[in-house]
What we know:
Layout: H1 8-15, H2 26-43, H3 51-56, H4 63-82, E1 89-91, H5 97-102, E2 112-117, H6 122-137, E3 142-147, H7 148-151, E4 162-167, E5 170-176, H8 183-193, H9 198-207, H10 215-227
Parallel strand pairs: 1-3, 2-3
Antiparallel strand pairs: 2-4, 4-5
Helix pairs in contact: 8-10
Amino acid sequence: MDPNADTEWNDILREKGILPERPPSPTEMLEEALQQSIQEVHDRRLEGLDIDELDDLEDDEDEEIIALYKAQRMAEMRSLQARSNHGTVTPIQKVDFVREVTEASKGENNWVICYLYKDYLPACKLLAPLLSLVARRYPFLKLTSIQSDMCIPNYPDRNTPTLLFYGNGDMRKQLVAWTAKKVEEVEVLFEQVGCLTLEQIRSARRAEGVDAEDEEAERELGEEKGRGIRKSVRTTVPDESDDDWD
Length: 246
């Protein structure tokens, strides 16, 4: 008798515990995994869509599901608006760094970006107004600025401008000698670091009258995203206990 045979007698023996349960066939396991993957993709098909994109799908999707996702998006937007209390690049002093940057970044999605600069450097003259525009466009982000040698004594000009990204109380990313010529480059950088989402970028552009579906705007966004983030260089991060803070 073949204990693995699919027979009525073997089923009876398995029910009585005489034979062990028949292991699932590889084909059944693959089919189940495939169906599960398809279902997961289907369940997530609406994730990441903004309000206007959800409106466009109302004729094709279940109204109750669309309403649920729209309610989630509205709740997310209200949450961002509640935290939208910045809107400018705030100058800080070295004694303020821990409070205004490290401590302020604690908590979920409390991003703080610190901009180290020198006024006379051409790269800083290019980047400063772009950061001011980003601060106005995304007031839920906290952007601060400090002269580089005030933040880190003897900080070389060749490393400036520098951007320090803080989240959850820790520095998450640093970019040295990084600059940009267009605000789109800054937005894509922030999206790659994780402090902005593509949905937030598109919503902000739409609010300023830039059609998110505009082919040229989408092409530029894709091109900037493809360029990636310039390699960063490790630097010393200021600390209130540092003897150089004089």
